[in-house]
Amino acid sequence: MPNFKDLKSGKTLKSIIEKVMDSNYQLVKSSKQFIFDWKLESKNEVYKIYLLGKEKEILGMMSLKDHPQEYRIHLNLIEIQAKNQGKGKKIDHIAGCLIAFACQLSFARGYFGFVSLQPKTKLISLYQKKYGFRQYGRLLGVEQASANYLIQKYLNDENE
Question: What is the pTM for the complete model shown?
Answer without folding.
Answer: 0.93
